[in-house]
Write a structure and sequence with these properties.
alpha/beta; Molybdenum Cofactor Biosythetic Enzyme, Chain A; Alpha-Beta Plaits; Maf protein; 3 domains; six-stranded mixed beta sheet; five-stranded mixed beta sheet; 15 helices; elongated
């Protein structure tokens, strides 16, 4: 398996002034492509620091991806450092230089000499053009190692990384045959159960490589197959997927880019059902997920964040004595919230979520992470208690995904 090291360059990252979202994105995309990201390093804008990290990375990975340090200022040291470290001179890429001249014409003509620096690349490197900015990237092969240098602006970096990986995939197809990746998503089963299941998979050992990824209650099986012919790779993946679906049944909810909200949207459409959501501790996260789906307005009627007790009473019609008797975080109130939003919107399905996301607000009887989710489909209701762990954000995400999964299973049962 191809192994990678991710190096993010920028003093502002090291000092904690901005979040390092680039490493997270790169690692995720590499994993989806069957490339194992072994290490992540962040360093300040310093040549010697970068050289020392490049030496380490060069010895332990065969793909190095850097972000940052490709701008026109003196602090942008990536291209010069890479040139010096690998002993490859910098040369002007004429096409990049012409493009930057056209981009800056009439705007920053007094800075053309400074931006000329961004057209420099190591001799023999492949240019990765930047359609969203002035800093082009490049990929340089040196022995068994390939280094890919990308700008630090997230939007620019993401576009260029995917452009490079498309070229990499084509190159790999020529050199190593056909590589195919499939992500199979499950909810409600443990990572250990998924790993154990593959021991009994009908796919022969060595035909497929798998990695399990866990996030927000979802366990994703990343499956990589390399074969001489595409048809063979597809058949291996199909066989592995059939085995997993047979093993885990309805716990499998999607493939590749399909999320829980996509699965729910498909079921809503397939069964011609409408939905409305009343949220307290999740703060509108379920509604946000559903409204990311194009065309969901046909089925998603209303989303209400009833955070305070007053909002629960005034907007959703939750009886005040119910809150006084059982508390706002209770199965009774979750059910009343689901009933209230369902009635108010005239939807077929109502969701009610109430809980304690923490870190404050807990009692001995009701700890942080206690969440009640109610799902009412037509005249059938289900209320469940959950005890999640993690940060406030973790608990919100677990709760939202759990609510969506409850709706998914309820629709599969009742429709």
């Amino acid at each position: 398996m191809k192994t990678a090291e991710i190096i993010t360059i920028g003093t502002e990252i090291v000092l904690g002034q901005i979040a390092n979202t680039n490493s997270q994105y790169i690692a995720k995309v590499l994993t989806e492509r069957g490339i194992q990201a072994l290490f992540q390093t962040s360093i300040a804008d310093d040549k010697e620091s970068l050289k020392s990290i490049l030496k380490i990375a060069n010895d332990r990975a065969n793909l190095i991806i850097t972000t940052g340090g490709l701008g026109p200022t003196a602090n942008d040291i990536t291209r010069e450092t890479v040139s010096e470290f690998f002993g490859v001179p910098l040369v002007i890429d004429k096409e990049s230089y012409a493009r930057s001249q056209n981009r800056l014409a009439g705007k920053h003509e007094n800075m053309l000499d400074e931006y000329r620096k961004q057209a420099l690349i190591p001799e023999g490197a492949f240019v990765i053009s930047n359609d969203n900015g002035t800093a082009n990237g490049f990929a340089l092969r040196h022995g068994e190692v390939e280094i890919v240098c990308l700008p630090g602006v997230p939007r620019e970096m993401q576009f260029m990384l995917n452009k490079y990986l498309e070229i990499y995939a084509l190159k790999g197809k020529r050199e190593e045959g056909c590589k195919l990746i499939r992500n199979l998503h499950t909810f409600g089963i443990s990572e250990r159960a998924v790993e154990d299941a593959f021991k009994d998979c009908s796919v022969a050992e060595g035909q497929i490589k798998t990695i399990t990824l866990v996030h927000d209650g979802i366990v994703t099986i990343n499956m990589l197959v390399t074969a001489i012919e595409r048809e063979s790779a597809v058949e291996i993946l199909n066989r592995a997927e059939r085995d997993m679906r047979k093993k885990f049944g309805r716990a499998v909810f999607g493939v590749d880019d399909m999320g829980l909200e996509d699965a729910v949207a498909m079921l809503l459409k397939g069964h011609n059902k409408t939905i409305a959501v009343a949220e307290s501790c999740t703060g509108g996260l379920v509604s946000d997920k559903l409204t990311n789906i194009p065309g969901i307005s046909e089925f998603f009627l209303e989303g209400i964040v009833a955070y305070s007790n007053k909002a629960k009473i005034d907007i959703l019609g939750v009886p005040e004595d119910l809150i006084l008797k059982y508390g706002a975080v209770s199965p009774q109130v979750a059910r009343a919230m689901a009933d209230g939003v369902k009635k108010k919107s005239s939807a077929n399905i109502g969701i009610g979520i109430t809980g304690i996301a923490g870190p404050t607000g807990a009692t001995k009887e009701k700890p942080v992470g206690l969440v009640y989710v109610a799902v009412v489909v037509d005249d059938s209701a289900e209320v469940k208690e959950y005890r999640f762990r993690g940060s406030r954000i973790d608990i919100k995400k677990f709760s939202a995904n759990t609510a969506l999964n409850m709706v998914r299973l309820k629709l599969m049962d009742n429709c």
